[in-house]
Amino acid sequence: MVMNIEFQLTSTPITSTAGLAFIGDHLKETKLSRHLSSVCPHVRKSGRIADIDVAKSMIGLLCLGKPDFDAVGEYRDEPFFSHSLGLQRLPSPETLRQRIASWPEKTRPVWRDFTLRLLRRNKKLLTEKIHGRRYTAIDVDVSPMDNSDTKKEGVSWTYKKFDGYAPIFAYMGPGFMLNNELRAGSAHSNHEGTGQWIAQTLQMARKITGDTILFTGDSGNDSKDNVEILREQPNTDFILKRNLRKQDLAEWLALAKQQTGEENYEKVDIGARAWYGENDVVLPGQDQVPEHKKVKQRVVFRATWRFAKPDGVTAQYVTDPQITIDAYWTSLDWTPQQIQAFYQRRGTSEQYHSELKSDMGVERLPSGKFAANQQILDLAMIAYNLLRLLGQQMLQTGLVPGRKARSQRLRLRTVMQNLMYMAGRLVRHARRYILHIFKGHGWALPAMALARGPD
Questions:
Q1: How many domains are contained in the chain?
Q2: Please, is 306 exposed, middle or buried when counting C-beta atoms within 10 Å of its C-beta (0-12, 13-18, 19+)?
Q3: Residue 286 maps to a domain
Q4: How far apart are CA 370 and CA 381, in angstroms?
Q5: Could you report the per-residue pLDDT of 216-227, keeping only the tens digit for each?
Q6: Which residue, among 342, 107, 38, 376, has the nearest Cα to 215 in the 3D structure?
Q7: How far apart are CA 430 and CA 177, in angstroms?
Q8: Domain extent at residue 396
Q9: What is the pTM of this model?
Q10: Is 24 in the same domain as 90?
């Protein structure tokens, strides 16, 4: 069979990753390079690849969904990868692995500070008006990473019932990552140091925005210490799901009915009803404190009574009705219904995890060393935020095609497929580099709008 298209090799530089030009533009700041040089050991050796080139190379790979060290070898004879990221030299896979593993712990503030500068420059994307007041929302969550069948340092049995890591993440606004911490798979959501990490995260947020911070966390972080830390934070409100542990759920249901009236219920579905309530609850650990000195915190809750299982348009009644209580510590004066509705937005954070782990391929971390994998996770945070930023900026152009144009945010996979992997031809003319992209490409116009920058 004869093909109707003839294949030929060409020496003209052609790239399938035109979008890396936008990544390189954000990474060219001199402060990042200087800060990294100041914390990495200085080795005066001719031919040594600079640490900033190692970092940029890894970030570039992560933006392409290729977190493996070996992937850098694919771009050894492809000039655009190095040129777009501003690399003096492209490291080999072995150099990339060894150098990242050799970075000291004090490298981590370099990545955090760059993240702060990036988010601060784009803080208008991070805030929203909720019930008449402007907030910057921060959502904290643990999301295990499956690293089964490996002998990597720190990999152990997670609550998701596989071997891996259990890192904690903090997201800001519409899915920008503010902070992270890699943890052993067996680590509990609220293991030692979590409170300090939360305080650090909120301190970072205050360096970005002056708006009130709205912190949201799940029941894995429910503890007296964390509630007290949140209470002490300036210009910060919080919603922290409460773990009722062994408390009598029927008492909570009775309290909700008493406060709102038994007939004033919300119909959840054909087989369930819900009542809302609130109470000032004494913080745990105050048994020896006089009653008038005990510290209380507002708790709002929804009590759901399920008496039947939905079965199409009918219901199958159950002999033993179930009671579910969703309770929250909060500093807000919102109604319990408003608190419940806002907390349910946390489901979006699962999508953020998926974009990091699936779209970018950062599920199975590439190194056998725990400290090196923390460095990779920090670099992945930078790559993740750059992709998120490009997605938001393209939406703002009003030129994104199809249904995506009506989205509030673009999934990272969409940004990677349509911008990162956009084809282009690199031409050098009059000491200038020009990247030609096909004007018939559906995403060419938003890409050109990004290249021109704000009017």
A1: 2
A2: middle
A3: yes
A4: 17
A5: 999 999 998 999
A6: 342
A7: 40
A8: 14-108+374-452
A9: 0.93
A10: yes
